[in-house]
Amino acid sequence: MPVGAVATYLVSLTARTSLRIGICAALGVATADGLYALVATLSGSALAAALQPVLVPLRWASGLVLVALAVRGGLTALRQYRNRHLATRSGRTPMNPGRAYLALLGITMLNPTTVIYFAALVLGSGTAAAADPLEQGVFVVAAFAASAGWQLLLAGGGALLGRALTGRLGRLVTALVSGVVILALAVRMLVVPS
């Protein structure tokens, strides 16, 4: 499984908050993957043709959201480090499990790479052409379960990372490194067409 900008953000979010929030965020990613698997099995080759005109705007929207997340995360980390705050508390509403789920669901739904991946997978395997709805259902459930397992593993890694780096400097370095990785992956997405 590739680790892209969304996975990097998931690990970083879990490290900064809690495993509970990370689990909900991971399930948001898995839900998006499951929905795309469902759409891909139901629409088959029509999906690729329908998405062609909106791939560039989707890529830009996804890239810009990731850039905003990277910049916001870096600035927040710097502000907290300067103010000597160890917690992620601020004047805004803290991240909660529901908000984490919806945020990662939305980010993943915007990611055109996810759409292309599932369309190619379904077209290559012939699942979309299969007349058997049971086979299509098994594919969708398996895609969701595989994604959930991987995303939960990443969230667990983020929770371990968060416990290992509890000091002010550790939190700053973790936030800045993850921000740079997210930013680099977002720029790559914007510059190098899929």
UniProtKB/TrEMBL annotation:
This is LysE family transporter. PANTHER family: ARGININE EXPORTER PROTEIN ARGO (PTHR30086), ARGININE EXPORTER PROTEIN ARGO-RELATED (PTHR30086:SF20). GO terms for cellular component: plasma membrane. The keyword Nucleotide-binding does not apply. Its main location: membrane. The keyword Disulfide bond does not apply. The chain crosses the membrane at residues 60-79, 100-125, 137-160, 172-191. It holds the Pfam family LysE. It is found in: Cell membrane. One of its GO terms (molecular function) is amino acid transmembrane transporter activity. It is a multi-pass membrane protein. The lineage of its organism: Bacteria, Bacillati, Actinomycetota, Actinomycetes, Kitasatosporales. Keywords: Cell membrane, Membrane, Transmembrane, Transmembrane helix. InterPro entries: LeuE-type.
